[in-house]
Amino acid sequence: MRRAVPFVLALSFAAAIIFAPAASGATAEPPSVYVTLPWMTGMARFIVGSTIKVQSLSAWSETGALKSVRRVQPGAHVIALDPLDAKRYGLEAGRQGLYFLYENLPLPDEKRNSLQFDASALPFLSQRLLMVVSRLRPENYAFYQRRLAEFQSRVDSALEVGKSQIRDMSILDLSGAASPWIRAAAQDAVRPPEYLWAAWAKGDRLKELSLAVEEASRRKWWVVTDAWTPQYVMAAASNAPKNIHVAIPAPDQDFFVYLHDIYLQMWRLYAKR
């Protein structure tokens, strides 16, 4: 009978561990953080899981413009792309609880929007997000590292799938922000030079724009636009018989589902040719 005592004690000890009430810190409400941009919000949510409550300060309008959806509560933590990004929400550098991914990012707005579609930039952005959220919950650093690795793996996977889907498409790329993601997968994607793009965005040299769309149509290319395409370019592209428009992500749509859906949308139309 005495031999059974150690076993009973061990069983009791295991049960105590399994069924013991959680420590007060484990059941506490997770800290919350505001993120300035919708696409950064999606990335942050993936990395932190349920350990931090992440809310976006903005959302996309149908035309690709940012619109404010909530205000920062006093004393709240905020993650911004850089000081210029934060200033647009009335947040000045030096504010307690304000974190930047970059201290200075010398990019115009159209290039900033493209960051979310740049497979070469996303790993660096996600790494910087990891460092910020780790300051909020340092005890979860190892978990965030695993999520970061998974994030990068999913970006690579979505890109490889895209290459198999749209590799053979001939494209006139008139997208305003999604261009890096499109050209990363398509082998035959032509984009106007920057000086022409800048002129078209302002409504200048529109004859050349019309000729470019007409030539693409004659060659039976696909003309691709997105929500960030300037209105003059969008109007000209709508005349192409084979055109594809990349919409903004749906509210709270999974970041990777959105990236994959861009390729899937293009492939479905291409497969019907």
Structure keywords:
alpha/beta, Rossmann fold, 2 domains, 12 helices, disordered N terminus
What's the short story on this structure?
By secondary structure, the chain is an alpha/beta fold. It contains twelve helices and ten strands.
The CATH class of the largest domain, by name, is Alpha Beta
What is the distance, rounded to the nearest whole angstrom, between the alpha carbons of the first and last residues? 80 Å
Fraction in helix? 40-55%
The strand order across the widest sheet is 2-1-5-6
How many structural domains can be distinguished in the coordinates? Answer: 2
Number of strands: 10
Identify the CATH homologous superfamily of the largest domain: Nitrogenase molybdenum iron protein domain
Structural class of the secondary structure composition? alpha/beta
Mean pLDDT: 88
| CATH architectural designation of the largest domain | 3-Layer(aba) Sandwich
Reading the helices and strands in chain order gives HHEHEEEEHEHHHEHEHHEHEH
Topology-level CATH name of the largest domain: Rossmann fold
Gyration radius, in Å: 24 Å
Strand content: 5-15%
Coarse shape: globular
Biggest sheet layout: 4 strands, parallel
What multimeric state do the chains show? single chain
Q: DSSP helix count?
A: 12
